[in-house]
Specification:
- By secondary structure, the chain is an alpha+beta fold.
- The chain folds into 2 domains: 93 residues; 123 residues, Heat Shock Protein 90 (2-Layer Sandwich).
- A 5-stranded mixed sheet has the order 1-2-3-5-4.
- The two termini are 46 Å apart.
C-alpha cells in the first residue's frame, strides 16, 4: 500500500512538472522571438542603414563629378533615401528604440503616429501613467498594441480607433476599440496574433479579453498585474 501511494505521489509530481514545463513553452517562445527581433533590429540599424547612408553620400559626391548625370544621380539618391526610411521603419517595428530610451508612452505615440500616417485611420490616444513600468510589462503592452493595430488595419475597415493605456499601483490596462465591421464572437478567429496576446497576458498573470459584434466594431482589453 505504501509503495502504491509513493508511486502515485511520484506520478502526480511528475505530471505537475510536465504541465508547468508545457505552460512555460509559449512564454519561452515569445521571449526568444523578442530577443531575435532585437538582434535583427540592431543589425538593420547598425549595418544596413549605415551602408545605405554611405552609398547615398557617394552618389551625392558623384553628382559634382559628373554634372551631366546630375538629374539621374539625384533621382537615384531619392530612391535610396526611401529605402533608408523603409529599413528604418522595419527596424523600429521590430524593436522601437523609444521603448528602451524613453518608455512606453513615447514608444506608443510613435507607433500610433506611424499607423495613422500609413492607414489614415484616426486614433484617439488616452493615457494615465505616472511612472515607468517594469520592462517586461512595457514590452508586452507595446507588442499587444502593435498586434491590435495590425488587426484593425487588416480586418476592421475602421475609420476611428481608441487606445487607452492606464496604470495604478496594482495593474496596467490596455484597451483598444475600433468602429469597424466587427465579427460574430462565436466565430472569433484564433490567429497567431491573438494567441500571442493571450500568452503574453498569461505570462504576466494578466487577463486578455476581446468583444465584438457585426457592424459595431471590436474591443480588446488587457489587464496586467504589477509587482509591488
Amino acid at each position: 500500500m505504501e509503495k502504491a501511494l509513493a508511486r502515485l505521489h511520484a506520478e502526480t509530481a511528475e505530471r505537475r512538472r510536465l504541465e508547468e514545463q508545457l505552460h512555460s513553452v509559449p512564454n519561452q517562445i515569445l521571449q526568444a522571438e523578442d530577443a531575435e527581433r532585437r538582434r535583427i533590429a540592431r543589425e538593420l540599424h547598425d549595418g544596413v542603414i549605415q551602408l545605405l547612408g554611405s552609398i547615398k553620400f557617394r552618389l551625392l559626391h558623384l553628382e559634382s563629378l559628373v554634372p551631366q548625370q546630375a538629374p539621374t544621380v539625384r533621382e537615384a539618391a531619392k530612391v535610396l533615401e526611401r529605402a533608408v526610411d523603409e529599413v528604418r521603419r522595419i527596424s523600429q517595428n521590430l524593436r522601437p528604440s523609444e521603448l528602451d530610451d524613453f518608455g512606453l508612452i513615447a514608444a506608443v505615440e510613435g507607433l500610433i503616429a506611424e499607423f495613422q500616417s500609413r492607414t489614415k485611420v484616426r486614433v484617439d490616444f488616452q493615457r494615465r501613467i505616472a511612472r515607468r513600468l517594469p520592462a517586461d510589462v512595457e514590452l508586452a503592452l507595446y507588442r499587444m498594441l502593435q498586434e491590435a493595430l495590425a488587426n484593425v488595419e487588416k480586418h476592421a475597415s475602421a475609420s476611428v480607433a481608441t487606445v487607452a493605456l492606464f496604470a495604478d499601483e496594482n495593474f496596467a490596462t490596455l484597451n483598444v476599440r475600433d468602429d469597424g465591421r466587427g465579427f460574430v464572437e462565436s466565430a472569433n478567429p484564433h490567429g497567431i496574433g491573438l494567441i500571442n496576446m493571450r500568452e503574453r497576458a498569461r505570462a504576466l498573470e494578466g487577463v486578455f479579453s476581446i468583444k465584438s459584434e457585426p457592424g459595431r466594431g471590436t474591443e480588446l482589453s488587457v489587464h496586467l498585474k504589477l509587482e509591488k
